TrEMBL record, chains A, B:
Gene it is expressed from: mthfr
Pathway(s) annotated for this protein in UniProt: One-carbon metabolism; tetrahydrofolate interconversion
Protein name in the entry: Methylenetetrahydrofolate reductase (NADPH)
Cofactor(s) listed in the protein's UniProt record: FAD
Gene Ontology BP annotations: methionine biosynthetic process; tetrahydrofolate interconversion
Segments for region (Disordered): 1-50
Function according to Swiss-Prot or TrEMBL: Catalyzes the conversion of 5,10-methylenetetrahydrofolate to 5-methyltetrahydrofolate, a cosubstrate for homocysteine remethylation to methionine. Represents a key regulatory connection between the folate and methionine cycles.
């Protein structure tokens, strides 16, 4: 029996052996843990060197971005935001440098380890953690590596680092060279990590000779490194010669050039001092005359980098470009745009931000409630061993961790307290003041003190494009005290490439049930419940207050699919559900945000604070789903009917 | 925190304790085995007494059917077909009687155990196995029970049975009464089985008195029985009095009346002799005059049963009716129809026939290939420990058992060898003769010897209604040697109540990708492959021959969803897939059926046999999926293009 499968393009691949029809009855028991279908994105399951290999085979170029750890907490918040923004351009990986003086392996928010971990877990980026080894014990290094692995990091750049002190002595049994570190990683962790090492296109400054340094590089690779990233250089042919020389001595792994767009006169001088590189004459000739003109230097730097990269790419020997960003965005993005490598129109593999922790690689379904707070969701589920795939399932829904620190670092609002007071009102007069804030957020119109409301406690960004489609209806209801914090329109089979609603591979169709989630008063809820009786079973609802009193008509408390997609050659993907159990965990967070982010802006016992507290204590959180997705959403009519009923009913006397 | 959830109808139910938002971090690890969502049919997971309880609460009446084991193998085949037919009417359960003389616990196809097991596994019917205990050792009884449990049976009717010999002595430590059996079952198997016991509305013939027999019945129930089914009776008030008397002495479980529609004069006399019941005068008065007129007696029997059942149902104390069918259909179905209890328009919970084995209760996805051979699929997967739920998944697809006995009893064709020869041709002239047979099957037109082709080796029934929609296109292609054995049209969101394509709960929408599966010559396949290049990636294909040589463009060999449904308040259901791995198991069966069911009708070495063998050895089995389900299926055009290419190409010279 032929075990090979011929692909449609004529190439053959081996089949799995039992698909040739073997039916040994001793193997007929189904394994108890089925792999999920790796549905949408091979990149989620492949390791970095395999992602590279696939791209090299298909000729798709890539880029990567290097960052250094920040010095301050707010610097870290900004850097994470930068990761989110630059992540949309489609880097194959990013890397984070390691500096012993900065406590790089600690739990501080600014450490290399925490920054790299955040990039993986919260920004969904494949990340390499640099690691220097000189002056470190093997135990210490193993400790860092174990911690990195636990946090979800899978790639290490193994470096010697700068020895402490002007002279340096080789230590017996210590790490003397990066090669020792590479060997150590392979010995302790087998093939778990992808390992990358540094190459120096003009030789390491401390090497005896260029040839010696090449031999040293080969040693590092032979010890178990998967690829090389080089120091920066100023001429394409500097790198290309180095590349040829590497190949000539038998280094076969990918070699990625390090690109540094010149960003300023002083920064170039500083760089030259540190790297001991020479700036070629053709560059100094241009820069010297304009050394006081930062903008001109930046433009030149971009132009020079683009030209050099084009030569590198055209050589056919350079599969990817590695950028030293110095934690800045503009120049790097501009170079990549001009090279056509920056993805302008990123397609989402799923409607929500994917985490890159290996244990989450098959995760493909989440409750909709955290749509605007994906980092919170990742945080609260970080202790799970397994993640839902295919279906959300039911009764064994696990507990969510507490969001026990509302100062959880990366979930802090990007806005200062002053900015928030301006947006949300430094003095609230009544509940209607709060309604106005929501309305201004929805409409993007300035509030009564002339400030735009750019965020709310539940949404740190302005309205998403998809939600913007519902702007008019949302405005109407918010004005009257239906304070919406999450919604989606119904969608009946739009192409998966739709710029607003699309996700997943091309050639598919995406669907949604209409969804609305809002805070509202208990008076409104009483009327709503009467109205909802007429809409059963078309509308599913769940209504809860901060004390946990809740009502739902979810059949058997089962999760309800609200987003799904059909793709060629794939099983169905159902990435969001409305789950009654999870809603009870979400509500804790949703109610607490009133206090933690809004009430606490005001003085204790102030009227403003009491107003927010009143809402927190007395309002209900409601979610509504319109199951009849091919029809126009009836949820707005449900709200209309509720208001009609309220308007018709005289005020109760209690 | 309030732990109760108020349902939309105002009733309260307890929430699962951790859904009130508890977030004890020591419980934050997700359990490794998630329950699936019990999506569509609570009946699949509830035990029988709970199904009854739900119906009694909602006031929905039910009926059940009793059968006796057949004496011959062909009687068994007929009985299984009867189960399939009568199963569509919606019995809550069926039961199978036990007769020690008939080897009822053996592996013979005619045994009570095997018949009951087949009803559960292959016909998807909740089934009760009768079990008599007198003259049996405890070991023997435990053996039967263990075997029943293993086979998937969950309900036992515990009976004493008829002691051997005219006199009967109580055995020390043996089973003297049904009560002993009930106790034994509870003691050995705890609460695994639902247990039912017999009641006698006029008292057991051997009881000392009616009151004594009532006390005895209470003893049986107190020993652990869940409900009672009664002996037949001729007057409604006989049963209703008995019911009141049972309640009066404290029997609270459901008591179901046994109904016997009189079917013939002799059968009534025989019954009276066995049961020692008296036929009331008002019945004999009618029957005697017409005792030679079977039709008249049957009509009277139906009328009498309907009237009696109406009185029983109107009493409000009778939740369900139990029918002694004597293995016949017509009278019972007519009575049930007149009572409005027979489901005329059965809704399918899933597009394929569900098995009732408890280990299969969450099974909700299968490969499409066995659509016409669900019993074969159940047989070949009977050793699996777990069944796919939600997604089919991939690489850990388990092996399928061999269909190692093409004489597998219940998969035998219902048609005799002679009938098959008439349909498929007692002499085949060429491959075109075979094409004609397929064409006649599709069109339901008689073949050239005037016989209708009612089945094919892969389809023991005529075309399903859904396939009938495609009749014209199917005819065209079969004529030219594209021998179709499975197909479905594309469906883009029909209501789940659609009479032809619908399945699952009401209020939902069902979808399908167009699918076509056929045998065809290798010449055709060569042309087809060229044509298919133009249709990538819209069309997925898999092409295989009997030797296992196969070609597919399935991305990463992943399963492709071809049927799915969206329902209110539920996660997505995706009940059929086209799976490349399973196709390789299916093809063994599909190719073998040429030989086992068709070729072997002819003499060894005869030209007819050689023709079938030639097809078996040289044709390919092809499956095609059109991924673009919102558009009209392109698969017919694919076939057209293939023929166009063939017609345009001169014959090759080999």
């Amino acid at each position: 029996m032929v075990n090979q499968v011929q692909r449609g393009d004529g190439s053959w691949q081996s089949c799995k052996s039992d698909s040739s029809g073997a039916s040994n009855s001793s193997e007929s028991s189904k394994e108890s843990s089925r792999s999920s279908t790796p549905v949408l994105d091979v990149d989620r399951s492949d390791r970095l060197r395999d992602k590279m290999r696939r791209r090299m085979e298909s000729g798709d170029r890539w880029f990567s971005l290097e960052f250094f750890p920040p010095r301050t907490a707010s610097g870290a918040v900004n850097l994470i935001s930068r990761f989110d923004r630059m992540g949309t351009g489609g880097p194959l990986f990013i890397d984070i440098t390691w500096h012993p003086a900065g406590d790089p392996g600690s739990d501080k928010e600014t450490s290399s380890l925490m920054i790299a971990s955040t990039a993986v877990n919260y920004c969904g980026l494949e990340s390499i953690l640099h690691l220097t080894c000189c002056n470190q014990t093997k135990e210490k290094i193993s400790g860092y590596l174990a911690k990195a692995k636990h946090l979800g990091l899978k790639n290490i750049m193994a470096l010697r680092g700068d020895p402490v002190g002007a002279d340096w002595e080789e230590e017996e049994g210590g790490f003397n060279y990066a090669t020792d570190l590479v060997k150590h990683i392979r010995s302790e962790f087998d093939d778990y990590f992808d390992i990358c090492v540094a190459g120096y296109p003009t030789g390491h400054p401390e090497a005896e000779s260029y040839e010696e340094d090449l031999r040293h590089l080969k040693e590092k690779v032979d010890a178990g490194a998967d690829f090389i990233i080089t120091q920066l250089f100023f001429r394409a042919d500097t790198f290309l010669k180095f590349l040829d020389d590497c190949r000539a001595i038998g280094i076969t792994c990918p070699i990625l050039p390090g690109i540094f767009p010149i960003q300023g006169y002083q920064s170039l001088r500083q760089l030259v001092k540190l790297s001991k590189l020479e700036v070629p004459e053709e560059i100094t000739r241009v820069i010297e005359p304009i050394k006081d003109n930062d903008a001109a230097i930046r433009n030149y730097g971009i132009k020079q980098a683009v030209e050099m990269c084009r030569v590198l790419l055209d050589s056919g020997k350079v599969p990817g470009l590695h950028f030293y960003t110095l934690n800045r965005e503009v120049a790097t993005m501009e170079v990549l745009r001009q090279l056509g490598l920056w993805i302008e129109d990123p397609r989402r593999p799923l409607p929500w931000a994917v985490s890159a922790h290996p244990k989450r690689k098959v995760e493909d379904v989440r409750p909709i409630f955290w749509a605007s707070r994906p980092k919170s969701y990742i945080y609260r589920t970080q202790d799970w061993d397994e993640f839902p795939n295919g279906r959300w399932g039911n009764s064994s829904s696990p507990a969510f961790g507490e969001l026990n620190d509302y100062y959880l670092f990366y979930l802090k609002s990007k806005s200062s307290k002053d900015a928030l007071l301006k947006m949300w009102g430094d003095e609230l007069m009544s509940e209607e003041s709060v309604y106005e804030v929501f309305t201004c957020y929805i409409t993007a119109q300035p509030n009564r003190s002339g400030h735009k409301v750019m965020c709310l406690p539940w949404n740190d960004e302005p309205l998403a494009p998809e939600t913007n489609l519902l702007k008019d209806e949302l405005e109407k209801v918010n004005r009257r005290g239906v304070l919406t914090i999450n919604s989606q329109p119904n969608i009946n089979g739009k192409p998966s490439t739709d710029p607003i609603a699309g996700w997943g591979p091309a050639g598919g169709y995406v669907f949604q049930k209409a969804y609305l989630e809002f805070f509202t008063s208990s008076e409104n809820v009483n009327a709503l419940l009467k109205v909802l009786k007429k809409y059963e079973p078309r509308v599913n609802y769940h209504i809860v207050n901060v004390h946990g009193r809740n009502l739902t008509n979810a059949p058997d408390m089962q999760p309800n699919a609200v987003t799904w997609g059909i793709f060629p050659g794939r099983e169905i993907v159902q990435p969001t559900v409305v789950d009654p159990d999870s809603f009870m965990y979400w509500k804790d967070e949703a109610f607490a945000l009133w206090i933690e982010q809004w009430a606490k802006l005001y003085e204790d016992e102030s009227p403003s604070r009491m107003i927010i507290k009143y809402i927190h204590d007395n309002y209900f959180l409601v979610n509504l789903v319109d199951n009849d997705f091919p029809l126009e959403s009836c949820l707005w009519k449900v709200i209309d009917d509720m208001f009609e009923l309220l308007d018709a009913t005289p005020e109760p006397k209690d």
